Amino acid sequence: MSRPTTSQIIGKGDYLQPDFNPKTLTIPHLIGILAYHQIPYPPQHNKAKLVEIFDEEIKKNYVELRKEWQERQDTLASEEGIVNGVTGSPVQKQPVRRSSRRASREPSAEPARIEPTKRRRASAEPRLGRARRTAPKRIEVISEESEDEQPQVKVEEPPPKIAKKRDSEAARPSRRISQKFGPGTEDSGWEDYNIFQSGAESSSPVRSPTKKARKSALRRRTSFSAPPEMPPSPPKAPFTPPHFDFSPELPPMEPRTPRWRLSMQEPSDDYYDDVSGLADVSAAIVVEDDDGEEDDEEQQFLPRDQEDEDQEDEEEVDELEDEENELEDSQTVAVAQRIAEGGQLVRRESKSDQSIPLWQRIAILLLVLALSSLSAWYKIESAPIGYCDTGSHTNDVLLDIRKKREETESCYAEHSEDGKRGSCPPLPLVPLPRPEACTPCPAHATCSRFSVRCDDGYILSPHPLSHIPYLSELANGLPGLGPIAFPPRCVDDELRKKHIGRLGKLIDTTLAETKGNRICTGIDPEKPIDGGEARKWGYDYEDLKSTLYKKEYNNREDSRLRAEFDAVFQEALGQLKKYGRIIEGKDSTGRKYIASDHADMTWSCKATVALRRSWAEWRSKVFGTIGLILFSWYLKVKNAQRREEKQRVAELVQIALDELREVEMRHHTDPVTTPHPYLSSVQLRDLILQDEHDPQVRRRLWGPVERVIEGNANVRVNCEELRGGEEDRVWTWVGSTGLASPSKKRVSLPSQSPSRE
């Protein structure tokens, strides 16, 4: 068994039952049902989502959707054919009658002439040669009243042929619209006047009359719905051949109007009221063209020569006629579809002739006058009250009015017994409402009786209705509107806000750059100063304000500008202080200073500050490292020097010992040249270290030599008087004399000994 289609499911309407389960449907079925009822669904969907939409949109509203579905189903064409709208039984299809061409006279012995073939779709090309004159044709007009009446035949003479196009318009075939309901149907819900129903064309003065009576079946039919099924037509009257008069008759020329109008016109006087059996154009529209067969019936009564001329002329007319028929058919279909899709006919509203009675007019006039008088009296008392005082719900005028009322009431209360009420102010005869309130002062404003002044940072915004001339004067004090009908409001001054924001940004930038420059110059942040951090990194309050004022107004001196700038400057500082962008401080004299909590520096300053901070942090470590390196190097040098001095001391000791041994030997071998066997310690030092000119170095080197020599057992230390008469320590060699030590060869000594001096 094949699965039903979406159209079949919608046609049955079972899904509109309250107990229907939408899960039994497929996704295409659900999408088709939602689209049929014009219910939106998401592009990305699945069956669960569609079922959910079905439950929410269709199942909950199945009663309304069922009624809508039933109405739409009633207007659809039945697949079983056309049925009677009342009984529901199928309407029998009317057999189509076709006329046969019969000769009007006996055939002659002449050879049959070949007639040219009709061109139904020839292009509208210009035809060369003169036009043929033809006899005017009589046009039969059929006006239909109902199916029960016989058609009335009217014979009219067409206007003379002026051009091919106008002749084709005059000879345009009539059109008949098929009917949905049979004759006598009274429950039709359609308008009496319909341009697509039969009878409308006959009643319209714009339509041209039809060319011939409808006697046979149609040769051509263009249908836009199911084929029509018509009840059997009534018997037709016997046909009488028309008498043709070839003399031209010119009817009065009437201006042509467009055939189709979007708005329906009122039916003319000759329009028939009984239209219950006319067609429902939304169900079926059939455009019929019966020119071909009617031409054949007419030609059988014409003479042969006239028939030949008409045949050639009709070929030209048919070409233009087909083109106009196609255009007219498309327009007919467009209008019919628009009506079938739900368009409604335009009806003229019926004008009511009933007028308001005179007593009602007088009552309304008196009521208006009374209300106007009361409103004027209320306005006179309420308008002078004005605005309430700032932060209050009353003012002096309202207090005076209340005081007078209380005095009047107390006066009447005091004299209620003694009857002396004549001295009291009069009271109103009717206790009418009296003004008891003033107009509240707008927020962020300071109000007097008739004036409003907004606070700093706000501007006055008038009421939109106050711009209408004289409206405020008329509305002030009316009941329900208050003493001031359209009070203004105080709104934020956007220009002032922008000015404050720009000035605050300028202050923040100036202070940040100043702090950055001072940090870059190397000010000690740890050093205390009178005024604190604000003075160290910022500006004096007055100096900063003067500097920025000159920058803003180019050194213009104006008291008004100065006062305005001071207010804006103070508010900008308040905004910066609110967000923690500035710091404040005072010195011992009371002067106020302002500085930024952050610094703005260039890249070079940032590099300088970073190096300075790094040096401050690593300076001790760098110096310690350098000192350690230098000390290590010093120790190394000292050790090397000490080793060198030790080596040199050892050499000097050996040289000194060799010299003492040699002096002892020379004294014994040559006492004349060496009279003394000893040498002075100082003289021996200067003799050996004669190349060292630094006395300190000599002493440093000779000290260890003295200690070593004096500790030697082969040397004796004595004090002897030298040649100069000075006593000094002398060294005498007392050991054995042998060969000189090899170290002596490395030291060159002078040839003479000090004793020789």
Which features would summarize this protein structure in a list?
three-stranded antiparallel sheet, Man1/Src1-like_C, Heh2/Src1, 757 residues, HeH/LEM_domain, disordered C terminus, elongated, 8% strand, mainly alpha
Plain-language structure description:
The protein folds into five domains: 70 residues, no CATH class; 192 residues, no CATH class; 91 residues, no CATH class; 108 residues, Arc Repressor Mutant, subunit A; 124 residues, no CATH class. The longest helix has 67 residues. Strand 5 and strand 6 form a beta hairpin. Helix 1 crosses helix 2. By secondary structure, the protein is mainly alpha-helical. The C terminus is likely disordered. The strands form six sheets. It has a three-stranded antiparallel sheet with strand order 9-11-10. A three-stranded antiparallel sheet has the order 12-14-13.
Q: Estimate the global geometry from the Cα principal axes.
A: elongated
Largest beta-sheet details:
3 strands, antiparallel
Kindly state the percentage of residues in helix. 40-55%
Number of domains: 5
Based on CA atoms alone, the radius of gyration comes out at 67 Å
**Unreliable residue runs:** 98-112, 118-188, 198-250, 254-307, 349-353, 739-757
